[in-house]
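Subject: two folds for Thursday's group meeting

Dear M.,

Sorry for the delay on this. The cluster queue was jammed most of the week, so I only got both jobs back this morning. I'm pasting them in the order they finished. Each block is the input sequence followed by the predicted structure tokens. Could you check whether the formatting survives your parser before we put anything on slides? The first protein is the one we discussed after the seminar.
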Amino acid sequence: MKIKEIYKKIIPSDNYQSRRDFCNHHLIDNLSEKEKLLIENMLIEDLNSRYDLLLIETLTYLNSTKSISVIEEKLKKINEAFDKIVIARCLYKLEKDKSKMIDLAYDNFLLITNDYIKITLFYYLVKFNSNKILKLVKSYTGNKNILLAHNSKAALQEAPRE
């Protein structure tokens, strides 16, 4: 299969139908090292020309440290708290300014007012493996909104153990 065809499978069209419940990890895991390098370069080039969280998350999965500067540039231009938290998590995973990324995620989570968005973000937040963030998520375990309480508990179960 040609690399461009593989790329289209790894980064499908940016619409609900193509991306609902989508995960590209199994596709990436089956690539050769050479293909991974080519895909990484294509992702960086694509990210330079447009904004797409899937590009950033895929580069993070590839552990692409050479994409950090491009990701940081995207972060500077983003206004949405949700996106900032996801990008901060990606940069954190790529070993970039961990304490700064924790603070950025924490502060932006406090700006979120939609409970359903908070539910999704719990699962990103616990991956920071920071006491500050874990305390924030834990503060929702007794929430009167049963969905918030249940999902905060479930996310905490997925938190990395030291």
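Second protein, same layout:
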Amino acid sequence: MSSTPPDVDHALAYPEPPASPLWHRHRPQVRPLTPEQQRRNREVLALAQRPPPVIFFAVLQEGRWPPGPA
């Protein structure tokens, strides 16, 4: 029997843990949007792209709320 310890890395003696589910490439198919969801998305997008109301610009210019004379 040898008096030197075996050259074994015990950290590698066990299998690797299973991969995270986030690493898997096969994901479930995405469900298409219904016509109602598409319509709602178009409405919200159009609303978000409109310029802000005029009172908002007054607040930006004066730097206080409510806008108007001090």
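Two things I noticed about the second structure. The chain has a mean pLDDT of 75. The helical segments are 35-49, 54-62.

Cheers,
T.
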